Protein: ABC transporter ATP-binding protein
Amino acid sequence: MSANPPLLEVRDLVVRYGEVTAVDHVSFTLDAGETLALNGPSGCGKSSTVTAVLQLRRPDSGEVRFEGQELTKLTERELRPLRPRMQPVFQDPYGSLSPRRRIRDAVAEALRVQGRWDATGPARVAGLLDRVGLAPAYGDRFPHELSGGQCQRAGIARALASDPRLLVLDEPVSALDPSVRAGVLNLLADLQDELGLAYLFICHDRAVVSHFADRSIEMRSGRLTSA
Ligand code: ADP
Ligand code: MG
Structure:
């Protein structure tokens, strides 16, 4: 146990869809720079958990403490400055980028939204694309002009633009061609080493989890089976 408080502390999280309790009093913590894998069969509540952690859908009850702040009690406006600090990367690489926006503009927009756009903006966008292994020419493309792996890299570049402390990775390589998965996972591992990012990482592949995660927790039918 580290002396510092955890980066993320989830306590008794509950998410309901009508009569269905998708997340049933789930609690866990995540330290800065750590990778926690969240495993479990399809439909057990993994995506519902991380969606509620990110406050993309408010949980029905429970607490989500991030960087010392209890998010569930904050208004949308109060959350706005915190949102860049916790960025999602979803399974569908195309679904998380606007189909009408060039990759360069999608990354630039992430800087703009936070008021971090200035004369250095274009160079920073180029640097972010380079950092995820995309040559400058890819900046001119639209998402549908990229492969799944390239598109996921672009999504990671956009997430990094907001200088996050936590990436929430919901099956980030499951939709990708097996031949490009290792490259994206290696990129994520390198970024974590360099930037000290924490990862909450949903993944089905046990080999990947044991290689990639510091710790793992398991869900069944909305509950954790180990803590
Ligand atoms: P996982 O990510 O582990 O596959 P989900 O969190 O997506 O699981 O789903 C957990 C349960 O909640 C499932 O029974 C699923 O059908 C249900 N569920 C998920 N999203 C919704 C929704 N928007 N409306 C109603 N039920 C949902
Ligand atoms: Mg899911």
Observations:
- Helices lie at 46-53, 76-79, 103-113, 121-131, 148-161, 178-195, 206-212.
- The mean pLDDT is 94.
- Strands lie at 8-17, 20-30, 35-39, 61-66, 69-70, 86-89, 166-170, 198-202, 215-220, 223-224.
- The CA atoms of residues 63 and 73 lie 9 Å apart.
